[in-house]
Design a protein that fits this description.
9 helices
Length: about 220
């Protein structure tokens, strides 16, 4: 029997968090090997584990996978969270690319110079309420089904759940005008595997704080 997937990253959200969400939703137990110093990252680079010298990296099924989309797509395919056919996969990809656009903006917010935080926060709120959240609300409204694609759980629903959590952390009022998204969030959060992931003590990581940000900058040699 193959061992548990092993995730190589720092002890924080970043680009690994979507992978944690998807594995957890699929009911897959995994291990994490945290980088704690620049030397830990150097070791992964020097031993050939990182094809493009970058993390996240996931050891799974005898492979060392890098690049987030490749990792997410492999997990989604393996655990039947990637649609029934090529058209459903195209929709799932289209939706998740939009989620990634907004999520990247939120993810980079702690790295902004202090003088730019307020303006960037305002921009994120504007994009969330006028572009991204209405788009996903309209998808649910258009077909009246429980999930975004094919009326069954997919990678898109899980990553949307992650995004909605981040949006609410930024400003809880941003979700007020999107009842269908709130309904989907409740539906997904009540799935046993997701409910377990949302409990204290799980592998789900908290928002980046000042201490964690300092550790990230140290590991990646960010000035």
């Amino acid at each position: 029997m193959a061992g548990k997937p092993r995730l190589h990253y720092f002890n924080g959200r970043g680009r690994m968090e979507s992978i944690r969400w998807l594995l957890a939703a699929a009911g897959v137990e995994f291990e994490e090997k945290f980088m704690e110093s620049p030397e830990d990252l150097d070791k992964l680079r020097n031993d050939g584990s990182l094809m493009f010298q970058q993390v996240p990296m996931v050891e799974i099924d005898g492979m060392k996978l890098v690049q987030c989309r490749a990792i997410l797509n492999y997990i989604a395919t393996k655990y039947n969270l990637y649609g029934r056919d090529i058209k459903e996969r195209a929709l799932i990809d289209m939706y998740t690319e939009g989620m990634t656009d907004l999520n990247e903006m939120i993810m980079h917010l702690p790295l902004c110079p202090p003088g730019e935080v307020e303006a960037n926060t305002s921009l994120i709120k504007e994009k969330a309420t006028n572009r991204y959240l209405p788009a996903f609300e309209n998808v649910l409204k258009s077909h009246g089904q429980d999930y975004l694609v094919g009326n069954r759980l997919s990678k898109a629903d899980i990553l949307l759940m992650e995004l909605l959590e981040s949006v609410e952390e930024l400003d809880p009022s941003l979700l007020a005008k999107f009842p269908l998204l709130k309904g989907l969030r409740t539906r997904v959060s009540n799935l046993p595997t997701v409910k377990k992931f949302l409990q204290p003590g799980s592998a789900k990581k908290p928002p980046l704080d000042e201490k964690s940000l300092a550790e990230v900058k140290k590991i990646f040699r960010i000035p």
